[in-house]
């Protein structure tokens, strides 16, 4: 399996790119958000990938972060959700938005993605709600994971020139949410209620740091009355 590609971006289309790795071109399909964040043609690129292999099909899907890749994997595990629908959801919400929507049970936000009906959106939230805390917790370790060894990497034989612009693989909001989630778990809150509170706090203030998220989430978790 190919888990990551590092090479030169040779071609861009509406929904996929061609990446040259040691003279071999790999076609990689991506969400709209990932496409917008990739560098220009001729520049160096590094992207996580997920390969789908069937009798009549072999395709690569690309992601800028491990969190986005994990959500794609989980979304595709839901009945009736294929790669195309998963990428549509990630295009509409981004990985952080998917985390918040599922943690909050907000199937209406999921339904806003192209090609997603209300029944499918509700099924996604129901099936994946308990998995949201685990994916959100990845936010604090994505940077470390990217620096570690990767056995499924296809790289250039020579160092590629530094890209002029590359998106950050892990957003600050993801790391802040992961830290806040960990803190609430250490205080004894259950994974689901902690994830819901952190997701709601992050939705109310997308720029909030970890400390502010913790304070806001604690207020939401405080007994009412």
Automatic annotation (TrEMBL):
Residues 1-64 are annotated as: Domain I. Gene3D superfamilies: 5' to 3' exonuclease, C-terminal subdomain, DNA helicase RuvA subunit, C-terminal domain, Nucleic acid-binding proteins. The keyword DNA repair applies. It is found in: Cytoplasm. Keywords: ATP-binding, Cytoplasm, DNA damage, DNA recombination, DNA repair, DNA-binding, Helicase, Hydrolase, Nucleotide-binding. GO terms for biological process: DNA recombination; DNA repair. InterPro entries: DNA_helicase_Holl-junc_RuvA_I, Hlx-hairpin-Hlx_DNA-bd_motif, NA-bd_OB-fold, RuvA, RuvA_2-like, RuvA_C, RuvA_C_sf. Residues 73-92, 108-127 form the Helix-hairpin-helix DNA-binding motif class domain. The keyword Plastid does not apply. Residues 174-225 are annotated as: Domain III. GO terms for molecular function: ATP binding; four-way junction DNA binding; four-way junction helicase activity; hydrolase activity. GO terms for cellular component: cytoplasm; Holliday junction helicase complex; Holliday junction resolvase complex. Has three domains with a flexible linker between the domains II and III and assumes an 'L' shape. Domain III is highly mobile and contacts RuvB. Homotetramer. Forms an RuvA(8)-RuvB(12)-Holliday junction (HJ) complex. HJ DNA is sandwiched between 2 RuvA tetramers; dsDNA enters through RuvA and exits via RuvB. An RuvB hexamer assembles on each DNA strand where it exits the tetramer. Each RuvB hexamer is contacted by two RuvA subunits (via domain III) on 2 adjacent RuvB subunits; this complex drives branch migration. In the full resolvosome a probable DNA-RuvA(4)-RuvB(12)-RuvC(2) complex forms which resolves the HJ. The RuvA-RuvB-RuvC complex processes Holliday junction (HJ) DNA during genetic recombination and DNA repair, while the RuvA-RuvB complex plays an important role in the rescue of blocked DNA replication forks via replication fork reversal (RFR). RuvA specifically binds to HJ cruciform DNA, conferring on it an open structure. The RuvB hexamer acts as an ATP-dependent pump, pulling dsDNA into and through the RuvAB complex. HJ branch migration allows RuvC to scan DNA until it finds its consensus sequence, where it cleaves and resolves the cruciform DNA. Belongs to the RuvA family. This is Holliday junction branch migration complex subunit RuvA. The lineage of its organism: Bacteria, Pseudomonadati, Pseudomonadota, Alphaproteobacteria, Rhodobacterales.
